[in-house]
Automatic annotation (TrEMBL):
Keywords for the protein's UniProt record, in alphabetical order: Cytoplasm, Transferase
UniProt EC number: 2.1.3.3
Family: Belongs to the aspartate/ornithine carbamoyltransferase superfamily. OTCase family.
Gene Ontology molecular function: amino acid binding; ornithine carbamoyltransferase activity
InterPro entries, per database record: Asp/Orn_carbamoyltranf_P-bd (IPR006132), Asp/Orn_carbamoylTrfase (IPR006130), Asp/Orn_carbamoylTrfase_sf (IPR036901), Asp_carbamoyltransf_Asp/Orn-bd (IPR006131), Orn/put_carbamltrans (IPR002292), OTCase_ArgI (IPR024904)
Reaction equation(s) it catalyzes: carbamoyl phosphate + L-ornithine = L-citrulline + phosphate + H(+)
Protein name: Ornithine carbamoyltransferase
Chain residues that bind L-ornithine: N165, D229, S233, M234
Length: 313
């Protein structure tokens, strides 16, 4: 399958076969890494890493993945390049497109990412915007494949604040891969309606199931995996609405009682990190034998490496 030159804006842009191709490649490059095999498929490639939002896992994953494959990653924060202020996004994109082979963008507006794609004319990868987080979803699915095997028909329950980028990309990915995906959240914190509509079209083709619930105990029954994310996203800390949001989300905390309510002793717990333990998840669950969060964090590197290889070579 040839994905050369493709950008990754949202998972809606990729077919089921293309997603599976990247996941298969992710398994391959992870195995190579463990066996200390480094083919250097990205030798002499230069990668621009643009960060409007800081990150531990994203920066580390892109940097190590690039070095492993022989590429040179260059970290650029918004103050380094006067991004969108002294120089327009359009002009920055045209300059970087002439100097780099690929661009990673982690920031706020989806529109900014789309401008980078349009005007740079090189592959651009969405490492987080306000609306989507596709590289995270690839790591999530690689982890699920490793932990529970074939994903079609498996039940994945997302609990808490689902009106965010992680829930959006996870829902799209689960629907494309034929899973049973349950969004368990207050009605006021469900995914954006337009993304739900797009997923409802997808499940007609893939046979996936999509359900919405505000009853955590009922929603998690027979779940293969419970997933959550922080209730207050980066950049929202000073939002006066956040205190009220925390109050309405308290019943959706993943704790030992809720894990037991799955009636499945092997139910996996996942979290994209960083976690606020004691809020969306308890320390007990986070540190339990059912937790796969650090395998999930490592898999950011392997799936990102696969995405870069697939779109640059």
């Amino acid at each position: 399958m040839n994905l050369t030159g493709r950008s990754l804006s949202t998972l809606l842009d990729y077919s089921v076969d293309e997603i599976n191709f990247i996941l298969e490649l992710s398994h391959k490059v992870k195995k190579e890494k463990k066996e200390k095999i480094f083919p250097k498929r990205l030798a002499n490639k230069n990668i621009a890493l643009i960060f409007e939002k800081s990150s531990t896992r994203t920066r580390s994953a892109f940097t190590v993945a690039a070095f492993d494959e022989g590429a040179h990653p260059e970290f650029l924060n918004k103050s380094d390049i006067h991004f969108g202020k002294k120089e327009s996004t359009k002009d920055t994109a045209r300059v970087l497109g002439r100097m780099y082979d690929g661009i990673m963008f982690r920031g706020f507006k989806q529109e900014t990412l789309n401008n980078l794609i349009q005007f740079s004319q090189i592959p651009v990868w969405n490492a987080l915007t306000d609306d989507h987080h596709p590289t995270q979803a690839f790591a999530d699915m690689l982890t699920l494949q490793e932990k529970i095997g074939e994903l079609k028909g498996k039940k994945l329950v997302y609990l808490g604040d689902a009106a965010n980028n992680v829930a959006h990309s996870l829902m799209i990915m689960a629907c494309k891969l034929g899973m049973s995906f349950v969004v368990c959240s207050p009605k006021s914190r469900r995914p954006y309606s337009e993304i739900i509509s797009q997923c409802e079209k997808i499940i007609k083709e893939t046979g996936a199931e999509l359900e919405f619930s505000d009853n955590p105990v009922r929603a998690v029954k027979s779940a293969d995996c419970l997933y959550t994310d922080v209730w207050i996203s980066m950049g929202e800390e000073n939002n006066p609405e956040c205190k009220e949001r925390i109050e309405i989300l308290k019943p959706y905390q993943i704790n030992n009682k809720l894990m037991c309510a799955t009636e499945n002793e092997s139910t996996l717990f996942l979290h994209c990190l960083p976690a606020v333990k004691g809020m969306e998840v308890t320390e007990e669950v986070f540190e339990s034998k059912n937790s796969g969060v650090f395998d999930q964090a490592e898999n950011r590197m392997h799936t990102i490496k696969a995405i870069m290889i697939a779109t640059l070579t």
